[in-house]
Structure formats: C-alpha cells, structure tokens
C-alpha cells in the first residue's frame, strides 16, 4: 500500500472511459470466460440513518469492493440519496491500489451492462431509433448517452422521450428532438407504442405501462428495481418476451419483475437467458417478440469498469484483468 492512494473523481472517470469503451470492457470480460454466477452476493448492513451496500468481487489480477451508502433523509438536506467509494486492490497481496468515486462508476457500468445485453438487437437495423426513457435521473441520462455512443455511425437516435412524474422538474432535459412528458398520460402511451427501445430507470414498485403497448420488435431495458417485491414491468410483458438477465440465480433472488412473473406463471425459469450467452453469441436475440433485459446490478460489473478506468489512468492500453 502506498502512502497516498490515487483517487479518481467522477470527472476523471468520465474523462478516462467513454460509455462505448465501458460496454466493450463488459463484453470483453464475458467473452474471456468470466461467469457472473461466481460473483459474491452483495450484502446490506443497517446503520442508524440508512444502510451500507457492500459489493465485493474478485477477478484475475484485481479484486475490489464498492461501499455505497443509502440515506433516505438526504433529499431534505440537498444531498444525494446514494453515495460511496470503490476500493480497488491487488488480488494477490490485497493491497489497496486505487479509490474511485462510486457514483460515477455505477452511472457508467449500469448502462454499459444494459447495452451489452441487447447490443445485437440494437445494431441489426440501420433505421432511426426511437427511444423512450422512464425516469430523468443519472441512470436515465446515462442509458441515453450509452445508447448514443454504441449506435453512433450505424443508426441515428430520433424522437427521444423522457417520461417522468413531474415534467417541470426535468425541463432541462428537453431540447431539439428531445421531449419531456408526464407519466400516465395518453402522450406517454403513444410514445411507448412507437418506441424501438424503452428504458425503465425509476424507483417505481409497480408496472409503469401496459404490456400490450410494447411492439413485437421492441427492446425493453429495466434497471430501476432490485428487490423481489418491486417491479417496473408487468408479468404479461415478460411472458411474451425473450427475457435476458445478468445471472439466473441473482434474478430469482433480487429482480421482482422476474420473481413475480415466475410466480404468476408467465415465465419459465428455464427460458431465462443469461447475458453471457448473448454477448458470446451462443443465444440469438429474438426478432419476432420483444427482448427484455432485466438488471439488478452485480459486483463484478463495478470491478470490470474500475479496472478499465485505472488501466487507462496508468497508461495501459486495456484492462489487466485475466480470466
């Protein structure tokens, strides 16, 4: 351990690794044989004013842990509800090697995983891409940026629509060919009906829209919920879709959208597609029914992106992870 660990701020993380490069880092980890099923289960520790989320992972030459704090009272204080730090270690000596802003890491890795999981479907056409995003927070904006980064040069994103509960609070997102509209309105329903991609990045605990609004060739990404009794998508949608998950066991433990659809009999566990199967080409994404990717977030994703960021910071061409 050095006397002074390097600390990579949110701004530095954004400078070092583009959204497209983050997607490529996730894909490389999976193509090189990493199995998300081997990732340690994250844990939650209650404290007086909230809780800690502890997310460790151990891959190749690096190991690390994200320590995130969740403080429900922070909104009234004008502070982020979720804060934290990522600590990267050498896998053999377990000596700390770097500290990284956890919020920036999460904002980068979550959409990277989402887009990696559905990338073949995004790139199989060259027509303009119509995108609807439920939510207006960092993950909503991050998914938009990552989608743009990955499809750039192949197809254009047109008609971007953010659907939020309080449009006036997110007016800054509006711009040329970008709308901000209210949730639960006829306008929102029409936007979903026309969408090629629907991203759900909210704190909702019940479905955001009806299953029959989603086109048969649409891609739906849901990242907002990670509790077994909360969901952004209804069972009917998952029942008519090809459902991709990070890891089947994790989905059955943490992803309410999947858990409740299985309980309601619309989804068979054996039909769930692990994301490595998509990334490696072992499973082709459907063209005759919706593709749904449901994510809860896993520790390995933070480690892969943290390692890639530090590799760039230290002048390496690419991550030094070995699988």
From TrEMBL:
InterPro entries: NAD(P)-bd_dom_sf, ODC_Mu_crystall, ODC_N. SUPFAM superfamilies: NAD(P)-binding Rossmann-fold domains (SSF51735). It holds the Pfam family OCD_Mu_crystall. Signal peptide: none annotated. Gene3D superfamilies: NAD(P)-binding Rossmann-like Domain, ornithine cyclodeaminase, domain 1. PANTHER family: KETIMINE REDUCTASE MU-CRYSTALLIN (PTHR13812:SF19). This is Ornithine cyclodeaminase family protein. The lineage of its organism: Bacteria, Bacillati, Actinomycetota, Actinomycetes, Micromonosporales.
